[in-house]
Amino acid sequence: MELEAVLLERVREYESLSRWERSELGRDLRRTGLSYGEIMELIYVKKSTLATWCREVRLSDEQIEAIKARTGSRIGVPVDTNRKRREEVEILRSMARDEAETLIHDPLWVAGLILYWGEGTKGRNRLSVANTDPRALRLFVKWVRTFIDPQARFTLAMHLHEGNDEMNARRYWRWETGLDDANFIKTFIKPAGTGHRKNHLEHGVCTVRMRRASDAWNITMEWIDCAAVLFGLGETSNYN
Predict the structure, then answer these.
(1) 161-167 LR contacts (CB < 8 Å, sep 24+)
(2) For the whole model, what pTM was predicted?
(3) How far is the CA of 37 from the CAs of 21, 52, 64, 186, 204, in angstroms?
């Protein structure tokens, strides 16, 4: 395909361009409908760098078909590898929205959701609660197994201070959470003299984390958003 004279002139001057000007040229070439391979024949750039430059550039259906016609392959054609997962997540969240209108009347669901809203991890695809109160952790476990997955499994982690008896703390948290068969991940031990607390908690802080929680995280975040609306607290969240 033919390029405009101005664009060709910039290609010829590529070596003398600044880093920003090179990236702009790469994006402009991509916008004309060139594949990555075709662009790399015009300017010296690594494919990974070019892909980074052009990640926000969207080709039209006609441009994509033209690339396939010229090259005889799909090389250089953008592939949406996450499309199927996004569709699955949207179905999960849609179902969660429908369920929330009924579950809002269940005190256990509300209690567990408020606990997670305040104390739970909001990091994507991780469902966990850290607390010093075993009752809060038992509520989290019961809530997950009642409303998300009856067969849910969990891991435990502890945050201790230097001098705490780690093995005793493990026995304590296994017993108190009812998770006798749960594995512990590496314990964080805070050295002496690094904090202000003088009365160290004998058993530290325990984190209960659900295994394979990607779907559960999406459901829970949608429920939080729905609860906020149903409680008249607003619609904005950062969980999507």
Answers:
(1) 161/189, 161/190, 161/192, 161/195, 161/197, 161/200, 161/201, 161/204, 162/189, 162/190, 162/191, 162/192, 163/192, 163/200, 164/189, 164/200, 164/201, 164/202, 164/203, 164/204
(2) 0.64
(3) 20, 15, 14, 46, 56
Tokens of 81: 């590898």
pLDDT tens digits along 190-216: 877 655 555 568 888 999 999 999 999
**Count of domains for the chain:** 2
Which among 235, 236, 238, 166 has a CA at the least distance from the CA of 206? 166
Domain that holds residue 55: 5-71
Amino acid at 51: A
In this structure, the answer to whether residues 124 and 221 fall within a common structural domain is yes
